[in-house]
Amino acid sequence: MSNSQQTAEQFLVWLKGQIPLLNHMGFGDPAYDGRSLTLSAALAPNVNDKGTGFGGSLATLATLCGWAMVTLYLREQGRDCDVMIRDSQLKYLAPVTGDFTAITVLPEQAELDTFMSYMDSKGRGRLNLEVEIRQGDKVAMTLSGAYVAVERQP
User: Fold this and answer.
1) Which one of 23, 46, 83, 146 is least enclosed by Cβ atoms within 10 Å?
2) pLDDT, tens digit, 9 for 90 and up, residues 58-90
């Protein structure tokens, strides 16, 4: 198991202690390689009255995936930050009829360098991420989100 993967699993355990709702969403083990993050969830605890994935659960998993990616990235850079979503746009493309995943990838290095430059000079920065909710290979929802990080004060 890589250090990144071990860090992601420890992070998810910690996170479930911080946000009780997450204990009820049927999460599987995260997959994290330092560049991309995949979070999975079971359909059963996230089903709506039509027998498909509840839109709020899809939005929660997508938002969490982006938030976790920024938080994990900053921790790997030795940063202790508060991370929050500033704004997002969701697009529901297809119903989810089975277990599903959220997947995000860090942006190109130039964007990461700009983000870290703001963190260095201002103690805060913004990073835009794209997150996909997939059922198998099918993209069911997308989230375009701006995440803000603020350096914690000692």
Assistant:
1) 23
2) 999 999 999 999 999 999 999 999 999 999 999
- Mean model confidence pLDDT for the chain: 92
Q: What is the DSSP string of 6-27?
A: HHHHHHHHHHHHH-GGGGGS-B
* Confidence band for 4, pLDDT divided at 50, 70 and 90: low
Range 120-126 contact pairs with CB under 8 angstroms and sequence separation of 24 or more = 123/150, 123/151, 124/148, 124/149, 124/150, 124/151, 125/149, 126/86
Distance between CA 114 and CA 96 in Å, rounded?
A: 36
| Domain 3-151 falls under CATH 3.40.50.1820 | no
| Averaged pLDDT for residues 128-146 | 97
The two three-digit tokens of residue 36, written as one number: 């991309």
Encoded tokens for 95: 């119903």
Closest among 57, 59, 76, 63 to 11, alpha carbons compared: 76
Return the H-helix or E-strand segment holding 103: strand 100-105
